[in-house]
Amino acid sequence: MAATSILDGGVQLFMPEHDVESPELSIVIPTLNEQLTVSEFVRWCHEGLQEAGISGEILIADSSTDATAERALEAGARVLRIPVRGIGVAYREAILYARGRYILMGDADCTYDFRHLKPFVDSFHEGYKFVMGSRWKGSIEPGAMPALHQYFGTPVTTWILNRLYSTHFSDMHCGMRGMTRDDLVAMDLASDSWDYTTEMMAKAVHMGLPTTEVPVPLLKDRTGRVSHHKRVGWSSPWQAAWINMRAMLIYGPDFFLLRPGLVIFVLGLLISLPLSLGPITIGPIRFALYWMLFGTTLTIAGLQAFLLGCIAQVFFDYRGHATRRWLTLFSYTRGVVSAAVLGLLGFACTVPLVVYYISHHEQLTLHAATQDRLGVAGLMLMGIGFSLFSSTLVLHAAAIASRRSLERWGAHT
């Protein structure tokens, strides 16, 4: 047995006596006090690798206070001792030392049967780059999953994910999943906790990775083992759901901004522009200045939402499609010139209202219907111009800031 000390962050890498030289698959597992099951889990991994006919390593990313590391090492796994806890931290550190072309992730509690990892290997060899396990397509042993998770938490959050990202996953919370190492590195994942896996799925969609699901069984916890959720307390599942929901929204904000913003923008224009010519009466309802103000509000809010959606797509555009589309549509010259023209036109529309106000400021009541409508239209145009100008600048800045990720992604595709 040999031990290599890694100076950065106090991380230590321990290698077993019989180490694999050139693994094709790395089984990367974060652990926290899993001494009860880790030895058997490592044996399962060796059996699964043999069944799949692939050369592989087992890399345990451990932050335990018990004998998990020692038992994993004795069973033939590499052990990366990480002083900082957190599933995201463990994965980020472990990926740096994983040597396989493919990465298979999971838990060391023997609830996922790594003796049967062949479907993941077969999917990789078929060309898939992101392979999700699915307990719903596989099986769930009675008592293996709390009813709250099985009938509410996982189905609901999976449904939301599919709506936000236009995907067709059946089990977003399955702990057994695989990915090519290059793609996992290119993702540059930042989450530290349970949201790590949600970020991974969201970015896999943004990257357009060929994706499939394979059925996996979920087994009951071993007698004497307490799950991580139970260790934390009753609030742990709700905290996990909250941070996963946060990740889904953060990595897919354009769902709420792009199309809804465009619809609101067009609706606002349809209300405000006709009213700038004068009141409109439809049946018993008279649409006048107040409705025009409402339409103006919708127009500016909708445009701002749409433009923010464009910028959000650029931040997570690994393939460059959205970036090219929005930079072409909102080129610097076109955006700045259009903003200036709209701003000047809007200013010109407000001049009659300002002149009228100055010339009649001594009157108690002002009746400037035409000037009012022109003034509101002018303010709307100036608001549109300012939003277009500022968003054009931010869009181009976002494209420059995201260029490094795009180049890193393009380097291996």
Features:
Spore Coat Polysaccharide Biosynthesis Protein SpsA, Chain A, nine-stranded mixed sheet, elongated, alpha/beta, 413 residues
Condensed summary:
The protein has 413 residues and is an alpha/beta fold. Helix content is 55%, strand content 14%.
Descriptive overview:
The chain has 413 residues and is of the alpha/beta class. The protein folds into 2 domains: 2-249, Alpha-Beta Complex (Spore Coat Polysaccharide Biosynthesis Protein SpsA, Chain A), CATH 3.90.550; 254-410, no CATH class. Helices cover 55% and strands 14% of the residues. The chain is built from 14 helices and 11 strands. The strands form 2 sheets. Strands 1-2-5-4-3-6-8-7-9 form a 9-stranded mixed sheet, with helices on both faces. α1 (38-52) packs across α4 and α10 packs antiparallel against α11. The model has no long low-confidence stretch (mean pLDDT 89).
